[in-house]
């Protein structure tokens, strides 16, 4: 949560609307030991998020942050360690992960409201998409999170914008979702 809240505060998401995202080259991101790939628009600069001990205590293994303060948009890409007892990779497991994520947000996000909650697959890999609105550190925000699991890890791709820019948020989410590619190893 520290990474996410810090990014939102830095972006000042309560002010202004996001400018339209124009097609540009994309930064390719590889997750879950190469099982999941996505493209982040290259016009959203990458920031150094500097994972620390509190992040690793939360099970965060790796993370990248892309943020544009002028347009008030961001994409956080995280990988977490999943406890062996919770390491399932089915749509039901991902739904439970999304529910747990929302339970964690309730303590820090005021006015939290789920807007979308759906399961889908990409290349045979189950994913879950969760969209919510609420105020993080008093900044009205619109957030979509994609969840996927493989190899005892959970990937979270968090796309966030200012609350008022619903059209811009949907365009950025659609672009990220359209870029998702999965390579699921064949079962022995």
Which features does this protein show?
alpha+beta; Protein Transport Mog1p, Chain A; 7-stranded antiparallel beta sheet; 4 helices; 10 strands; globular
Structure description:
By secondary structure, the chain is of the alpha+beta class. The chain has one domain: Mog1/PsbP, alpha/beta/alpha sandwich (Protein Transport Mog1p, Chain A, 3-Layer(aba) Sandwich), CATH 3.40.1000.10. It is 24% helix and 44% strand. It is built from 4 helices and 10 strands, in the order αβββαββαββββαβ. A 7-stranded antiparallel β-sheet has the order 3-4-5-9-8-7-6, sandwiched between helices. The protein has a 3-stranded antiparallel β-sheet with strand order 1-2-10. Strand 4 and strand 5 form a beta hairpin. The longest helix is centred in the middle third of the chain and has 16 residues. The N terminus is likely disordered. This is DUF1795 domain-containing protein. Keywords: Signal.
């Amino acid at each position: 949560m520290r990474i996410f809240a810090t990014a939102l505060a830095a972006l000042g998401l309560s002010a202004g609307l996001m400018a339209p995202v124009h097609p540009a080259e994309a930064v390719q991101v590889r997750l879950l030991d190469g099982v999941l790939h996505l493209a982040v628009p290259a016009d959203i600069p990458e920031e150094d998020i500097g994972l620390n001990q509190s992040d690793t205590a939360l099970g965060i293994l790796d993370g990248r942050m892309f943020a544009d303060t002028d347009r008030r948009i961001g994409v956080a890409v995280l990988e977490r360690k999943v406890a062996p007892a919770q390491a399932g990779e089915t749509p039901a497991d991902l739904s439970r992960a999304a529910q747990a994520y929302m339970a964690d947000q309730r303590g820090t996000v005021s006015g939290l409201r789920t807007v979308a909650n759906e399961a889908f697959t990409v290349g045979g890999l189950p994913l879950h998409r969760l969209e919510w609105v609420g105020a993080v550190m008093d900044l009205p925000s619109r957030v979509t999170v994609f969840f996927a699991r493989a190899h005892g890890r959970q990937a979270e791709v968090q796309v966030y914008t200012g609350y008022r820019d619903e059209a811009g948020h949907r365009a950025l989410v659609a672009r990220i979702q359209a870029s998702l590619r999965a390579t699921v190893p064949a079962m022995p």
